[in-house]
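[Meeting: bench + compute handoff]

Bench side (C.D.) handed over the final construct sequence. Compute side (W.E.) agreed to return the predicted structure before the next meeting so the bench team could plan truncations. Sequence as handed over:
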Amino acid sequence: MGAPVKVDPVMRRDAAYFLAGPALLCLLIAALFHLHPWPVALQAQAENFSWLITGWWLAVGVIAIALSSRISCPPAPPLSDGPGWRRVVVWGLGIGLIQGLEGVAKTATPMFGARYEALDRAAGFTWGNVGLPWSIPHYFHASVLSECFFRFGVIVIPVWLLSTLLLKGRFQGVLFWTFAALGALIEPFEQTVLIKHMTFAGMTAVDIEGSIEGILWQLIYAWTFRRFGWPAPILARFGWYLVYRVFAGYFFRPGSTMYPGPH
């Protein structure tokens, strides 16, 4: 086994930035939901605001983020590094906005939109997107907790355990992309099989394309993490949610599953 973990200033700074920023906001949003619950399409979405689930994933997140610099992911820039933060925001948020715009364009195309609507209704949904103003805190909370699982928990902790403790720092790049690829499969599988109750045999060309695209976007999020550090994938996911979940639904016909609910 490797030497005991020594907490260096970079690890402390990353943990402090996460706790004082995204984690604190998530706790405040969870408190707001407990005081004033807003309508959500899935019971699981309401359960995500429980103190247990929110606290668990924030704990996983802060541990993984503190360790991320040990697996060759860049730390968050110091607060005094304006150009560094602009680079993180432009790339992270920009990629999410592009993903959102591409998703809206596809959903507005009858070939894709009709299939998405049919799958939603077959799964029992009449709406999916939370309405303003609650959608902004709702999807920020979702962005942070999702990345604590899909990126930070799935990638950092196993890579650090295997590479640092067992392999003496070797093969970090290979291990990173191995777990990034495994993690990229989880969310598309969850959306397709667990939420929309599809079987692989029943998938159409549109469904297969959507699953492959979802996996590719997950890998792009992993690349932003590897290239710009932990704030980037959170910003990317939030940018996607802002376009696709928060605002775009109001440009679809009322009554469609894209139009913010409840209805």
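W.E. noted at the follow-up: Residues 9-77+84-251 form one domain. C.D. will use this when planning the next construct.
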